[in-house]
Amino acid sequence: MNSQAQVIVVGAGPVGLSAALLLARWGVQVLVLDQRPGREPVGSRSICQQRDVLDIWTAAGAGKVAVEGLAWTTARTYYRDRELFSWSFEHDGLLPACVNISQARTEQLLDEAVAAQPLIEVRWDHQVTGLTQDAAGVTVRCGQRLLRASYVVACAGARSQPLRQALGVSFDGETFDDQFLICDIRADLPGWENERRFYFDPAWNPGRQVLIHPCPGGTFRIDWQIAPDFIPTENDISRKIRQIIGERSYELLWHTTYRFHARIASRMRVGRVLLAGDCAHLVAPFGARGLNSGVPDAENAAWKLAFVLNGWAEEELLETYHIERHAAARENLEVTAATMRFLAPRTVEERMRRRAALEGGRIEEVDSGRFAEPYWYVDSPLTTPEPERPFQGRPPKGAPCVPAPGVILPDVRLPAGRLRDFSRDGFLILVGEMCDSRLFAQVLGKVITAPLAVRGLAEMDGSGTLAEKLDARPDEAWVIRPDSHIAAIIPHAGPELVVDAVSRVLRGSPDA
């Protein structure tokens, strides 16, 4: 069997490459397999990359995505020819809140990062035709070739039904009737370069929607909702573009039509195989919750596999991959399903409600897609609840979530870099000024073999700004997981309580 890999990643798309880079970052040998003969750099496809995904890619060695992407600032929403409302991202001097960049370019930048990583091998023209698991690992069949690894991460995209069937995994859900036409164009559109525009029922697409996104290099992505049976011709496409941009010159770079799906795998972990990205869940793209949930899948899988492979955690930890990321996928399905009910109402009641909201300017009822955000592992078995720090629920659009156990750690500018620069090398224990960081480190070092660092808040930022932004108290200890989520906030903290919180994560459950 020709493989030295500890983990085989199936699929060389953005999620698969992210998983490979993140595993290699932990010192894991990775083999990436893809059935295609090579890279196919066509079309914008998934373009909106959210800040926390940019943060993951930066940690994985692909920070160029954040640099090259276009950081648009304002989202405008229209009903016919009237602007209903607009909102803007808050800029804090850290990573952009969102960038637009074509999936093709994102894949090229990830390919560059993979090529610089000696622990990763990529093999094209390798279609997986079978998987066999045993107590020691997984045998992967590619035609007549057999490959062997301890674990497999399946990131082979939406068309992975044979693989899911082989694992006994269903992929229930629905497909929406309406089609969507996508065009990438290059044009000079002054004033549109940093704005996302969403149109409900414009005169040039009556009864349906149009979404326009700026992209790097003077390019724009336009999405039209079109009738289920409409087959657009070149003349149709030209007419639709002209209705938006007028007589300006433009270049059509790419176009396609597609339908939205809402589906979720019944299991995201089957023994030694973990499913991630579109292989595990499909959602309508409004709110950019596809790739922006697939990359956190990859990170969640990578650190847990690495901890198990390195003997730092129990194998039961892997089951929490399914628990946490399946819950995240279900939330994304709920959010996008509500959006689709507003965009494409199916009942008289839904149509009347939508019309009343749009014509009455009831902004709070208008749903063009809640933008992607990290999932909060509040109910995870890895999270230690704290009554003094309850989860306060989903924040208003564009606002950060109040820190609590399960929530992702806010990012803060520090003298030595960003706070999250310190939070992906293992466990990070942040302690207030009433806690002895050296004592904590000594006690933890005796019982925890996983990578771990104890840092005083005042040590990281003597000005007190960090403690103020986190609302951290002097007697608290914050346990931060290797994926920057808060595992515990412990008041009146002693080293033993921190050991308990870290051990809870490494066991994979509170009672194991």
TrEMBL record:
InterPro entries: FAD-bd, FAD/NAD-bd_sf, RIFMO-like. The chain crosses the membrane at residues 7-28. Residues 5-334 form the FAD-binding domain. GO terms for molecular function: FAD binding; oxidoreductase activity, acting on paired donors, with incorporation or reduction of molecular oxygen, NAD(P)H as one donor, and incorporation of one atom of oxygen. Signal peptide: none annotated. It comes from the Bacteria. Its cofactor is FAD. Keywords: FAD, Flavoprotein, Membrane, Monooxygenase, Oxidoreductase, Transmembrane, Transmembrane helix. SUPFAM superfamilies: FAD/NAD(P)-binding domain. PANTHER family: BINDING MONOOXYGENASE, PUTATIVE (JCVI)-RELATED, TRK SYSTEM POTASSIUM UPTAKE PROTEIN. This is Pentachlorophenol monooxygenase/3-(3-hydroxy-phenyl)propionate hydroxylase. The lineage of its organism: Bacteria, Bacillati, Actinomycetota, Actinomycetes, Streptosporangiales.
